[in-house]
Design brief:
The chain is an alpha/beta fold. The protein has helices at residues 12-24, 38-55, 73-81, 104-112, 118-135, 147-156, 168-176, 224-227, 239-242, 247-254, 292-305, 319-327, 341-356, and strands spanning 5-8, 29-35, 59-65, 85-88, 140-143, 187-190, 213-216, 219-220, 259-264, 272-278, 281-284, 306-311, 314-318, 336-337. It is 39% helix and 18% strand. This is Saccharopine dehydrogenase NADP binding domain-containing protein.
Length: 362
């Protein structure tokens, strides 16, 4: 049997997507959820089908127990369920690293940036992307694991990825929910994931932080921090918004509808953009006067200052992140070939595990 959507992963992010599909689907959609946590799978199936009944939606959920790290796991799922869309939400790095404290590893991520985790986020996603290329090239892939950076790694490895969820879509939806005193018109937001951090701070602490670019139609808002000063994110991952942000896109893909919104990493680009879905493909939907080259360069500049840049088949660390990896003795501080991702991931897991045993220096 073929399924409309295969969700890989059973964490809070995957659960938010599944349960919001259950509550909002307007046309029939079949969802298979795969992961290794049997009790969590049983709950997501039960809750998904209960919510579909509760809200009267034509959504149906089933589950498959499988260790997604097991060799051949992605291939097996594609062959069994033939999904039209894979929503890959599994990772060997928990998203709570953005709020955890107390170890040398969390120090490194806090100071060097989330691109310290990019290799961990890319492991399962790159395996699924390769499996789609080899077995089911018509299947679309939405990668939820650090898409601002990982999606560029996937495309550089020769595979397709439609986009990610969250990040820029967190901000665009937060701003849209707080626009009572703004002019009418289409809101467009260009934002890198590093633009999220200021909104986790109190309003008076945001001065000097990197701001997103926000437009109403083609007119740019000069001071987003002032305009949206009452908007506040949690210190933890904003899953109530980020996981949910991909649901309308997922349902539009399944029902072959057009869609306008915001996504990170569309077609492997760095950072996040306003987009338009037409006939199953995403195109950038930028304000007049902002070229694609300008928008891409603006997003990429964040990683050049502090992060990971993908050029050709090579990933290179930059700025403070590169310095910190060098200080901790990483063999890959200068970067690595994407063809070596599996080996590099194994090496960096050892570094992470060692640093997690050491107390924070702060």
């Amino acid at each position: 049997m073929s399924y409309d959507v295969l969700i890989t992963g059973t964490g809070m992010f995957a659960g938010r997507i599944a349960l919001d599909i259950a509550a909002t689907a307007k046309t029939p959609v079949t969802v298979m959820i795969a992961g290794r946590n049997q009790m969590r799978l049983d709950w997501l199936r039960t809750a998904g089908n209960a919510r579909a009944a509760m809200f009267g939606t034509p959504a149906r959920f089933e589950t498959h127990t499988l260790d997604l790290l097991k060799p051949g796991a992605s291939e097996a799922l594609l062959e069994l369920y033939k999904p039209r869309l894979v929503v890959q939400a599994a990772s060997i790095q928990t998203s709570t690293v953005i709020s955890d404290r107390g170890s040398r590893w969390t120090d490194l991520v806090a100071e060097g940036g989330l691109s310290a985790t990019a290799v961990f986020q890319a492991l399962i996603s790159s395996r699924m992307a390769k499996a789609i290329t080899d077995i089911s090239p018509s299947t679309k892939l939405i990668n939820c694991s650090f898409p601002d950076v990982v999606n560029g790694m996937i495309t550089a490895m020769g595979h397709n990825v439609l986009c990610g969820t969250g990040n820029v879509a967190i901000l665009s939806n937060v701003f849209s929910g707080a626009r009572e005193h703004l002019p009418k018109g289409r809101m467009r937001v260009i934002a890198h994931y590093q633009c999220l951090a200021p909104w986790r701070l109190k309003p008076q602490e945001r001065m000097g932080c990197p701001a997103p670019r926000v437009f109403i139609d083609d007119e740019e808002i000069s001071d987003p921090f002032k305009t949206f000063e009452n908007c506040q994110l949690t210190p933890e991952p904003a899953i109530e918004i980020s996981g949910a942000s991909g649901v309308t896109l997922i349902l539009a893909l399944i029902s072959n509808d057009e869609w306008q919104g915001h996504v990170p990493g569309p077609n492997g680009l760095p950072g996040g953009y306003p987009v338009h879905l037409r006939e199953g493909e995403l195109v950038l939907d930028l304000p007049v006067g902002i070229s694609e080259t300008e928008a891409i360069a603006w997003n990429e500049d964040f990683e050049r200052r502090k992060g990971l840049i993908v050029e050709g088949g090579t990933a290179t660390y930059h700025g403070r992140l590169k310095d910190l990896l060098t200080e901790e003795g990483s063999a890959h501080a200068e970067g690595f070939e994407l063809a070596d991702l599996e080996r590099v991931c194994s090496d960096l897991v050892q570094l992470r595990d060692r640093l997690m045993t050491l107390p924070s220096a702060t």
